[in-house]
Amino acid sequence: xxxxxxxxxxxxxxxxxxxxxxxxxxxxxxxxxxxxxxxxxxxxxxxxxxxxxxxxxxxxxxxxxxxxxxxxxxxxxxxxxxxxxxxxxxxxxxxxxxxxxxxxxxxxxxxxxxxxxxxxxxxxxxxxxxxxxxxxxxxxxxxxxxxxxxxxxxxxxxxxxxxxxxxxxxxxxxxxxxxxxxxxxxxxxxxxxxxxxxxxxxxxxxxxxxxxxxxxxxxxxxxxxxxxxxxxxxxxxxxxxxxxxxxxxxxxxxxxxxxx
Length: 260
Prior knowledge:
Layout: E1 9-13, H1 18-29, E2 33-38, H2 41-53, E3 58-62, H3 68-82, E4 87-90, H4 105-133, E5 136-141, H5 154-174, E6 179-186, H6 192-199, H7 203-213, H8 225-236, E7 247-250
Parallel strand pairs: 1-2, 1-4, 2-3, 4-5, 5-6, 6-7
């Protein structure tokens, strides 16, 4: 099925590894031209080289989403190079799990600035260009923790819940300009750090680790990055033209499962 994404210019933050890299891969398979914006230069360059060797058009830009000047420079670079941004995927985020009573002000600010404010600032810089070109699509990546969480995840859950509420507000605000804004909520999936832990295990240990990680997922598996990417690509495509403000869990059923 042609999703109408061939030759589209797609900007993916946090696309150097993990879920972000899976999202990048899925867009490239649809024929899109993808720009990766990520703070990790080593991973970003490696990802760019790996996809270019496969014949895909991909560009890497080093950018820290906590710094507005770097966001502006990244967006300006994409516009200078391609002249437009058709799709923005806000994936950059960080993790910090600890007792709420032990959080420092600095840690709280760092998490919120990265996971929530970063999505907002990227959107703020990209939307004027989308308005000028007649429309576009934005897909935010949050987490199932926006809907259901666990102890010691309160600040992380707050950031992800903020993305959900922000998505709805932005969808209303930008609908008249033909800009759709939706959010995907990934469940337990294979991150860069998780993948590194798996690589040093034996086949039997790896199988046990994956089974343990998927214990709360009705489908019984951990999500691969590409599986998270497929719904993201769909939401960015012409096939989702009547969807905006949608909140889509991609979690193997995790958020509908009661763990007694």
